[in-house]
Amino acid sequence: MTRRRTKKSRPSTPIATAVPTRCPRCGSTNRDPYHNTRRLDTTGTLPCGSVYSAVIWRRTRCHDCGQTRIDKTWIFRDADNSTKKTRKKSRK
Ligand SMILES: [Zn+2]
Description:
- Helices cover about 5% and strands about 30% of the residues.
- The protein is mainly β.
- Mean pLDDT is about 85; it is low at about 80-85.
- Zinc ion (ZN) binds near residues 23, 28, 64 and 67.
C-alpha cells in the first residue's frame, strides 16, 4: 500500500507561461545567454494596463543568424499594492 498523497504534501508549483522574445531578423527564439543587463527603477503603465516598477534591458544574440538584440522586459509588482483580495482566513 503506497500512499501518493499525504495531507502534508507540498503545494503544487504553479506554472507561469510567457511568450519568448524572437529574433527581429529570422524570428528564431534560440538565443545566447543574456549579458550586460541594465535595470532602471521607474514606474509606468503599459498600454495593456499593467503597472511596472522597473525596466530591464538585456543583451543577447540570436543563436541561428547571429543578430544581436536587446530584450526589454518589465518588472511588475501588481500584487503588492493594487489588488486587494479579501482573505477570510480565520485567525485563532
Ligand atoms: Zn536570428
